[in-house]
Design brief:
Layout lengths: L4 E6 L17 E2 L2 E2 H10 L4 E8 L17 E5 L4 H15 L5 E4 L9 H8 L7 E6 L4 E5 L2 E6 L5 E10 H13 L7 H7 L5 E4 L10 H17 L2
Parallel strand pairs: 1-4, 1-6, 4-5, 7-11
Antiparallel strand pairs: 2-3, 6-10, 7-10, 8-9
Length: about 230
């Protein structure tokens, strides 16, 4: 199946949980920002035509990065929350891309995404789209007020990663409908699920971590080093 594929990277968040001076996407890994690593991974994939990056209008750092000036990178203004930021990017693409285009939505704070995972995701033929995910290995506890109230079965529980891959028009419509209904949209798949779609799950690599906590930065650096060694 031949599809026109675009990437969308929401990056309007402030990363408050990191407790750092700058948003987490602008912290440094191997002499580059997290954002530069992430965007580079998408630009390196031959199937990705352009990368739309949605950032805050008040972001002083993104415009200074060399990658922001790349000929295949387009910057748009983000929103107050992730779902609105993604929708802003999708609306830009709706005006520029063909009607049957597909979009890869990827967290800016996931700099370790591997080309093999993107290949596997793009190879999916599921009409409702697909996401990268990994099965849960830990025992899951339901907790209320610091007390365990139940142990949850983990056999059917997966951790949702990005990129998430959907038909552009359908994802934009799903996000619009979910936001209008006040539905909690935690990722793009949840908006599609709101519209009764059943996205396919593609098992990804566990090193595709999202930098959320301070200790994640060192782990991401380790994974980047490991991936470099794999390619040698």
């Amino acid at each position: 199946m031949t599809r026109r594929v675009f990437a969308l990277v929401p990056g309007a968040g402030v990363g408050a949980r990191m407790g750092a001076r700058h948003p987490k996407q602008y912290l440094t890994l191997q002499n580059k920002t997290v954002a530069e690593h992430t965007i580079a991974r998408l630009l390196q994939h031959p199937a990705v035509e352009k990368v739309v990056v949605a950032v805050s209008a008040e972001d002083p750092i993104w415009p200074t990065l060399p990658v922001a000036q790349h000929e295949r990178v387009i910057t748009v203004q983000g929103g107050g929350e992730r779902a609105q930021t993604v929708l802003n990017g999708l609306r830009y693409l709706l005006a520029q891309a063909p009607a049957d285009a597909w979009v890869l939505v990827h967290d800016m704070a996931r700099p370790c995404v591997h080309a093999d995972d993107i290949d596997a995701l793009l190879a999916s033929t599921a009409v409702d789209g697909a996401i990268l995910a990994v099965p849960v290995a830990d025992t899951l506890k339901q907790v209320v007020d610091s007390g365990i109230t139940a142990t949850l079965p983990r056999e059917q529980i997966w951790r949702a990663f990005t990129p998430q891959f959907f038909p552009l028009q359908r994802l934009a419509h799903a996000l619009e409908q979910a936001l209008a209904a006040g539905h909690g949209v935690t990722d793009e798949a949840s908006a599609m699920e709101f519209m009764q779609a059943q996205p396919h799950v593609v098992r990804g690599r566990s090193d595709n971590i999202k930098i959320t906590w301070p200790e994640d930065l060192a782990l991401a650096e380790f994974f980047l080093q490991q991936q470099t060694q794999e390619q040698q």
